[in-house]
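User: Quick one: structure for sequence A, then sequence B.

Assistant: Sequence A:
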Amino acid sequence: MQLFNKKLFVIPKPKSHPAIRLFCFPFAGGGINTYTSWLDRLYDNVELVLVQPPGRGSRLQEAPHASMDSLVYELMQYAEFITDVPYLLFGHSLGSRVAYELCYQLKANNMRLPECLIASGSKAPHILTDRRCIHDLPREAFVNELKQLNGTPQEVLDNDDLMDLLLPLLRSDFKIADSYKATAVRMPFPIVVFHGEEDFEIKPEHLMGWQDLSDFDSPIINFPGEHFFINDSKDAVISQVLLVLNELLSPMRGYSKA
């Protein structure tokens, strides 16, 4: 097995012989703390891998990626590790699109693909919307946009020194979100879509677009909450992830072809 970067792939509880790995990708400006509490809910044969791109956590001093190509290029350096055993990808918001682009690159290189992708809180990556770009707004306007998204704690937004530290990462992540448009390719694995019922910025057609990217049915599962329902409805989200894992770990998977 290829060695992996322990800062890029944080494994809180390594398994000697996992039946499946669950890779979790952060939202724009987010880190691994979103998923660390999942560990105690997972099955013993599931290895949790938290993806930590530069600019956050233990990689805070590293320059963040400013393009999807750069970010996925770093991930692809460890493609043998990612594909070593059966795996499931989970991404929220921008993380969903990063996960899809990783699949696209793995497929192009004829490498093992995931058993499933859970795309949470995101439009389909090949669909353009009229949402305006925010990454290059002046500081005050950019911070106001962050406030509207309700994903950054108020105490962080009110701390100028902390915001000075985080703004390069936030601007870089949102630049990726603003500029990335995927090449639509149908994948030979299911894509399960998670959505916040009050996340009105993501339209039904944006969600249904994920069906264009899979040979299987792409169910849309709704949760109470806005865009960051992943935090507000954490228990329900984890329960649904466990249901997906149940299907993947059982001899007969319960997904049907589209």
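Sequence B:
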Amino acid sequence: MNAFAAAMDRIYANPSMAAAAVWISATTSEERPIRVIRRAPDRTTEFGAGRFVSVTMMLDVRVSDLPDPRTGDLIVIGTDSFTIQGEPVRDRERLIWTLDLRPS
């Protein structure tokens, strides 16, 4: 394990940084507890001469917690449920998935 992976493990274990969640497969109904870091950046979309700002919901999940997320899988955080939309993307080090979500 390199220093970056060790740092990520500590960040995801910190309750101030990451939250407990449950991943549910859309195809097999398999469930797995995971730790996630929530992000909600605004996204600007241009349409003709107009610009629209919309709120998004994204999660960062360790690849070691969730090796193969897929579009349509469900993520439950507390009482909130989200569906993965679009293709999950890994970081340069191949340690973290970024998941684009929509409310379920």
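The chain has a mean pLDDT of 90. The chain has one helix and eight strands.

User: Thanks, that's what I needed.
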